[in-house]
Amino acid sequence: MGNVITLFKVYTEPGNEEKVSAEIKNRLNPKGMQLEDIAFGIKVIKVMFVHDDSEGSSIIEEKLRKVNGVTEVEVADESLM
User: Fold this and answer.
1) What is Dmax (Cα atoms) for the chain?
2) What is the CATH number of domain 3-80?
């Protein structure tokens, strides 16, 4: 079994990016996070996790979707370490 790096794009309700970022950081302990402007004042939180390939990224995606203020989650990139 190997490790996988998964990068998620997390979309939030407008203006809640900082609050959602803090909650993700406290609840899920990601490897890295970055707030990025994408267009017309819309921001996305890029969140990186390192996990065992047997787990699958869908479990993490479900946890991200349950964070208050999250409107959409998508896998932006995934690769073996």
Assistant:
1) 42
2) 3.30.70.60
Q: Where are the domains of the chain?
A: 3-80
Predicted TM-score (pTM) of this structure? 0.90
pLDDT at 29: 92
Residue 15 has pLDDT above 90, yes or no: no
Strands 70-80 and 32-39, by their bridges, are unpaired
CB-CB contact of 76 with 46 (8 Å): yes
7 in Cβ contact with 45 (< 8 Å)? no
Residues 29, 41: Cα–Cα separation, whole Å: 27
Q: Calculate the average pLDDT of the chain.
A: 92
What is the residue-wise DSSP string for 24-80?
HHHHH--SEEEEEEEETTEEEEEEEEEEETTT-HHHHHHHHHTSTTEEEEEEEEEEE
